[in-house]
Amino acid sequence: MDNVYWSWDASTADGGNPSILAIGDSWFWFPLPGGSLINQLGKLVNADHYILAVGNNGAEAFDYVEGKYRKDVRRQLGLHGPSLSAVFISGGGNDFAGFNDLRPMLNDDCSQATTPEQCFRPGNDARTLEWLMTKTADSHRALIGQIMASVPPAAKIVLHNYDYAQPTGKGPFGGNSGWLKPALDDAQVPTALQADCIRYLIDRMTTKLRVLTAIDPNRVFLVESAGTLTPQDWVNELHPKESGFKKIARQKWLPVLTAIGLT
Known about the structure:
This protein is α/β, with parallel strands linked by helices. Helices cover 41% and strands 10% of the residues.
């Protein structure tokens, strides 16, 4: 799409002045044919809006405020903040996606578990589910604060909660190198319970994101897209096909974008 840029240099070369900043991970940056969610959102917003993406594949929520994309986020907010109509945020999925992220949160042996809750280590010490969810929510809260300090009072902030990822073991280029199933298998989570464990994670994250909208209900919005896709809509464990991204954009994002005046 001509109104979507993944490079500030490219946007300035085209004379585009971003009115929407999209701070995100692979759901905004997915490089395979069909593109990402941002490709679909670019088709929905008014033609006079330019979207500039910040972040990259694999980005975690922490990266936007204290990690590798901190400087770029601050730079773009400094350059374009006063003229922004909205900021889209995609973060949190990579915080638990990956063997080294997910496996520590699971119990050593989940073979006898009958509910998702029984698979996760209790408490809120380091590397537990509660610790991760709090850390991710704190990163979102800090990012929202930076955005609000940089953009006009009328600018909107839109979060989203992905969808219920599929622990199939299918990686980015096929094969058996996924982000979720290896950790679930290592923890001996029963196959019939693995999808429910991921659903439990997404639902816990959604609860945290809902709380963030209370910062300012007139400015902070949450697109609740979990539950939109079928298993056939996914190209691998974490990413929808082009048709899946299109479904989420049109069914879940469009009503929100329309309500805040971007379509």
